Amino acid sequence: MGGLARRVSYIKAFKFRSNNEVPTLYVDSGNLFTDDKVSNGSLPSEVIAKNKWVVKGYGEFRHDAANLTYSDLPYAAELLKKEGYEARIKEHPFIKRLLSANIKPVSDTLNAPVPYLIREVNLRRGTPNKKLRVAIVGFTEERPQMTSQEPNALAGFTIEDPFEAARKILPEIKQNADFIVVLAYMDDLKVQRLASENPEIDSLIYGRHLGSMNEPTHFNRATLTSAYDQTKYLGELRVYLKGDGSVENLLNRYVPLDSDIPDDPQALTTVTTAHDEFTNEQSKAAKASIQPTSVLSSNNSPFAGGDKCAACHQEEHAVWQKTGHAHAMATLENKNQQFDNECVKCHVVGFGQGGFQSLTNTPQFANVQCESCHGPGKSHVANPQKGYGFMPTPNGCVQCHTQPNSPDFEFKSYWQKIKHGKREVAQAF
């Protein structure tokens, strides 16, 4: 749901500027659901709540299609169950715009996702009153952790070879479409192969990488465009056609969804309501997970916590207390994001590494403390020696201070805000 209100606002502004003469298609290359599981293999309530709002939000604000991937299947299986399917479709028609040409059900209790859709768009510029049939088809690679001993199935579905599936279905699609857009969840080499082997493809939009903003490349007739992996940018691919409908040029850019783009009021209401609901679910889950052994988990952690560091490093601790790092969790709480793991990991100590678990279980590891940058320090506390805690900068800083998350980050000025330690050490930073 992140960025939805600004995406909707930008698209409305684009249509207004073009006098509604430029048709637009709104697509997602995949990995739109969260697939976090609890130990018994089912999706927790807070994850289900978040995914429900994704379906609702994508449907309300006219996403034309989204590609299903292996990571989407645990929740997609709930949507594609035959039992109650018609009622779900009636409530959320977007379910029928979840695409995959190579995901097939192995259980007769599940429906197959739609392999492709064809959208007919009206061209009002250059070729008045001409209609263009645009086909949108989806493919995903197999789960990377697949082994020969692990069956190629997940949540009641099997993932067929995408290259074989493409060879079978794309000629069929070509007979019914003027322009083919492929949504692919694959790495660079695989999408290059997909385009090279299938001359029917006109445009291929792909994901499964971290923060890629590569320039479009060309293989065979296809233009390959990468999708940014977070919702902080909107990928915009503009297709310019000749009078006969053939492609003359394609331009791609990534629109930052920052404060320069206002939130669409209607979409913002949806996002706010959704956020409140799944945050409440996350809060319930966190409280339910409180165990009397939470202190024991702290004892077993390789992290010591800032209070232990302060015993010897009092001056550094005093500096830290005056910085934003000391209140990093509060910034999430003010935005009601304290349960969003994608945000939490950069606002605490050792998330997913034996440190922070939740505000209820391990509050001593909340905020950006010494060990967030310098690494686990329990062994150093037990046996203080030189050599612990080297922090390569700015490389270490930009793990969290990424351009989308911290667009104003500039190491020299930011270091002055948190400067601590001996002069020669500070210079090494």
What's this entry about, in short?
This protein has 429 residues and is of the alpha/beta class. It has helices spanning 4-17, 45-60, 73-79, 85-91, 162-174, 188-197, 265-288, 294-299, 306-310, 314-321, 328-334, 341-344, 370-374, 378-382, 411-418, 423-428; strands at 27-28, 65-67, 98-99, 103-105, 116-123, 130-140, 153-154, 157-159, 179-185, 203-207, 217-219, 222-226, 233-241, 247-256.
Task: Describe this structure as you would to a colleague.
There is one protein chain. It is built from 16 helices and 14 strands. With 429 residues, the protein is an alpha/beta fold. Strands 5-6-9-10-12-11 form a six-stranded mixed sheet, with helices on one face. Strands 1-2-3 form a three-stranded parallel sheet, with no helix packed on it. Helix 6 links the parallel strand 9 (179-185) and strand 10. Helix 2 (45-60) runs antiparallel to helix 7 (265-288).
Order of helices and strands: HEHEHHEEEEEEHEHEEEEEHHHHHHHHHH
Low-confidence stretches: 147-151, 292-296, 423-429
The coarse silhouette is globular
What is Rg? 25 Å
Count of distinct strands: 14
Helix proportion: 25-40%
| Strand coverage percent | 15-25%
What spatial order of strands do you see in the largest sheet?
A: 5-6-9-10-12-11
Query: N-to-C terminal Cα separation, in Å?
Result: 37 Å
Question: Mind summarizing the main beta sheet?
Answer: 6 strands, mixed
Class per helix and strand makeup? alpha/beta
The count of helical stretches stands at: 16
What is the typical, i.e. mean, pLDDT? Answer: 84
